[in-house]
Write a structure and sequence with these properties.
Elements (H helix, E strand, L loop, with lengths): L2 H20 L16 H19 L3 H8 L9 H14 L19 H21 L2 H6 L1 E4 L3 E4 H22 L1
Antiparallel strand pairs: 1-2
Helix pairs in contact: 1-5, 1-7, 2-5, 2-7, 4-7
């Protein structure tokens, strides 16, 4: 996928989530299945994930190369990334990203603020992603807690799927 296609799918997956959320009753924001995240917590998790990626994309390239090396394989496709992530989740049931182990208390009054923060993080991500050359997107690596090292292009593609993944969970359980 070229940069424009990655950005388009990222935008699309977020838009699907926003449309679904817009049509949900406000009380669902704080209610969730027993022992599972409520809607607000899913959104906070997505904010945390994109914020973490945005911070990583500010890291100087020389440091990324020093810390994580450079890519020596073909990029994975969207479907390959999805399959690998689903397999990792299947083999690690109940895993929660370190960035989301301490969730804030979710209140009705936070809904608009959190949705605004998610949209802001997505816009920052797109802006940062656009600054990378097509070549550098395939060379530099970042670590993913389940997937291992991924190219910048792959991790942004994964972010699009990650949004879809949480949207699908919400649709099934909320």
């Amino acid at each position: 996928m070229i940069k424009k296609e990655v950005i388009d799918i990222l935008e699309q997956k977020h838009q699907i989530l926003y449309e679904w959320l817009k049509n949900r009753p406000d009380e669902n924001w704080v209610k969730g299945p027993e022992g599972k995240w409520n809607t607000g917590e899913h959104i906070v998790h997505l904010i945390q994930s994109e914020n973490y990626l945005n911070k990583a994309l500010r890291t100087p390239k020389f440091y990324l190369k020093y810390k994580f090396g450079t890519n020596n394989r073909e990029n994975r496709t969207y479907s390959q990334i999805v399959k690998k992530y689903q397999d990792k989740l299947k083999n690690n049931p109940g895993v929660v990203a370190n960035i989301s182990k301490n969730m804030p208390i979710i209140k009705h009054s936070d809904k608009i603020s959190y949705l605004s923060k998610l949209d802001k993080e997505k816009k920052v991500l797109i802006k940062k992603f656009q600054k990378w050359t097509e070549h550098d997107l395939d060379i530099y690596l970042l670590p993913h807690p389940l997937m291992g090292r991924m190219t910048i292009r792959e991790i942004v593609i994964w972010t699009a799927y990650h949004t879809e993944h949480h949207c699908n969970i919400l649709k099934m359980n909320h």
